[in-house]
Amino acid sequence: MKGKLIVFSAPSGSGKTTVMKKILKQFPDLVFSISATTRKKRPAETEAKDYFFLSEDEFTEKIKNDLFVEWEKFYGYYYGTLKSFVDDNISSGKNVIFEVDVKGAISIKQNYPEANLIYLLPPSIEELRNRLIARKTETDEDLRKRIERAELELSYKDRFDFVVLNDKLEKAINEVCEIVEKIIKGDNHAA
Ligand code: ADP
Ligand code: 5GP
Fold first, then answer.
1. Minimum-distance ligand 1 atom for the alpha carbon of 120
2. Ligand nearest to the CA of residue 68, numbered in listed order
3. Is residue 100 lining ligand 2, measured as CB closer than 6 Å?
4. What percent of the chain shows pLDDT beyond 90?
5. pLDDT on residue 75
6. What is the dihedral of CA 78, 40, 46, 100, to 10 degrees?
7. Is pLDDT above 80 for 36?
8. Which of 78, 142, 154, 186 is deepest in the core (most CB within 10 A)?
9. Measured from the CB, is residue 99 less than 6 Å from ligand 2?
10. Pairing between strand 31-32 and 68-74?
11. pLDDT at 191
């Protein structure tokens, strides 16, 4: 049987990565879809675990060779989901979870209509800004770009199968884990 696809998305700074880490702990058999990017590696990140970090030439070569399910360029960097990674895993029955931007989520659903889309909603843009400032991983310019894009990203939420508010972190984690469990068991209404 083919594995399931779970797509987890939200504006940058909403808490996606934080929640995702908990999901992966709770569901150790879920495979995290490792995207390719041209963004620089952050100190806490590992090559081929968090991302495949590529040069711009390497990335555009893969676009030319049609190796991506979807790709986007934002904040000046490329990000993309590799076809081979997804297909190899789902065809061997593994459930795959994606952490991509909102447009990428919609593209994945277009390519794999059976995919389940979960949206993590921040309490407000102001809170989003505060979280990004507290994270201290972006330059002022990158931070500004991320906040600017948040309005567009928020407008996508109604196209998702599930929307979870990330106000209190523990509550959001529990809600997302319940949804993931239902999806894995095939007991959800989105599939
Ligand atoms: P994303 O992956 O969506 O860009 P992160 O998971 O990196 O977001 O979270 C951004 C920052 O907000 C991190 O410093 C994280 O610890 C913090 N954070 C996440 N969820 C909450 C929450 N519910 N309340 C307060 N801070 C949070
Ligand atoms: P970050 O630079 O903070 O790791 O990620 C920035 C944004 O890129 C996040 O919204 C993240 O979900 C998104 N992203 C990561 N990988 C992909 C991908 O393969 N495709 C798309 N469309 N977005 C991605």
1. 3
2. 2
3. yes
4. 86
5. 80
6. -30
7. yes
8. 78
9. yes
10. unpaired
11. 45
The terminus-to-terminus CA distance of the chain in angstroms comes to 15
Instruction: Out of 42, 102, 131, 153, give the residue to mutate to test ligand 1, the one with the largest number of ligand atoms within 8 Å of its CB.
Output: 131
Mean pLDDT computed over 35-49:
95
Mean pLDDT score across all residues of the chain: 94
Neighbours of 95 (CB within 10 A): 18
Domains of the chain: residue spans and CATH: 5-185 (3.40.50.300)
Following CA atoms 166, 168, 173, 174 in sequence, which dihedral angle do they give, to the nearest 10 degrees? -120
Nearest ligand 2 atom, CA 16 = 12
- Which residues lie across from 98 on neighbouring strands? 7
Q: Is 138 in the pocket of ligand 2 (CB under 6 A)?
A: no
Element (H, E) at 86: helix 83-91
Place of tokens 């390719």: 36
Where residue 112 falls among pLDDT bands split at 50, 70, 90? Answer: very high
Confidence of residue 16 (pLDDT cuts 50, 70, 90): very high
**Torsion from C-alpha of 89, 175, 9, 161, nearest 10 degrees:** 80
